[in-house]
Design brief:
Radius of gyration: 20 Å
Distance between the termini: 5 Å
Helix content: over 70%
Largest sheet: 2 strands, antiparallel
Shape: globular
Strand content: under 5%
Order of helices and strands: HHHHHHHHHHHHEEEEH
Number of domains: 1
């Protein structure tokens, strides 16, 4: 349970400081370091002359290679961490960059600001930083849906899941999770270029997010004012989502806020007819983004409380 205390510290540091711009300009960020390695490997191995089978194997090798690199670096760092209470502090500081609680809040709030002011173009520009769909075709309700869906899904991917694996496996666990998540976000796409090369990354990301996504959904439901409705929406709609994991926190958020999410959307490749989550509810507005952010903050506070209790019991 020492790891729980370290993860609680990491979450607090991120909530208070985020990842400072000055620090980013000086050294970048661990995720960008991993991203450069992935990009280098992808450009050299995912070639147009390779067969589908070759792309599958090469993509799998990239996943293994990146994970070995990240885990070994973490193990070496951990070997230098002092024992005792100092270990909690040092591990927490080292885990801090892997948490994205403040960044997520900031990016979603940046969508709400212009939308509340009636500036749809600015809201579309803000939401384009957090979603892959075409923002130019989104109306105000579509922008609100995209922002709230990102908030729900990334609460799991960017906060709960790294903390979960950090509690279980310490610094190597949280670093390995973020490497898998970064691999999926960069090469785990279902298109001609990455369908085979990124398949291992996408499947592994699905696997490591199974428990955190469901835990995030329960956390959203527990801190909402509509606990029973949120849980009912999870039971009814989570499994119908295109993702085996994202549907859980999205369904919880939709039920808690009494709005509908998901549904048809347009990506670069064309229209994707996705089923609605909480279909009978109205479309969200900018005010619902604010309500979603408040729910998110309560859920993350609950997560911090859970970490502190686990650390104290340990």
């Amino acid at each position: 349970m020492m790891f729980a205390g370290a993860m609680a510290l990491a979450l607090c540091l991120d909530a208070l400081l985020g990842w400072p711009d000055g620090l980013y300009r000086r050294i970048g960020h661990p995720v960008t370091w991993i991203g450069r390695v992935i990009t280098w490997c992808e450009h050299r191995l995912n070639t147009s002359d390779a067969s589908d089978q070759q792309r599958l194997w090469r993509g799998g090798c990239v996943v293994v290679g990146v994970l070995v690199l990240v885990v070994m670096a973490s193990v070496v760092i951990v070997a230098w961490v002092p024992d005792g209470a100092a270990s909690i502090v040092v591990t927490g500081v080292l885990a801090w960059p892997w948490i994205a609680a403040r960044s997520l809040y900031t990016h979603v709030a940046a969508v709400a600001h212009p939308l509340e002011a009636g500036d749809l173009d600015a809201a579309r520009a803000a939401v384009s930083h957090v979603v892959g769909r075409d923002p130019s075709v989104l109306d105000a309700e579509g922008v609100s849906r995209a922002a709230i869906e990102t908030l729900a899904e990334d609460a799991s991917d960017g906060v709960v899941a790294p903390l979960f694996w950090g509690v279980l496996l310490g610094l190597p666990g949280i670093a390995a999770y973020k490497a898998i998540n970064t691999l999926d976000s960069m090469i785990g796409h279902r298109n001609a270029r990455y369908e085979h090369f990124g398949k291992v990354a996408a499947r592994l990301d699905d696997l490591v997010n199974l428990i955190p996504a469901r835990l995030t959904a329960v956390m959203f439901a527990c801190v909402s004012q509509r606990v029973a409705v949120a849980l009912k929406t999870i039971r009814q709609d989570a499994r119908h989502h295109r993702s085996p994991n994202a549907g859980w926190p999205e369904a919880a958020m939709a039920g808690a806020l009494s709005i509908r999410l998901s549904g048809p959307r347009i990506y670069g490749a064309g229209r994707s007819d996705e089923p609605w989550v909480n279909a009978g509810a109205p479309d969200p507005t900018a005010q619902d983004i604010r309500r979603g952010l408040a729910l998110y903050c309560r859920a993350m506070s609950l997560g911090l409380l859970m970490l502190l209790v686990a650390a104290l019991l340990g």
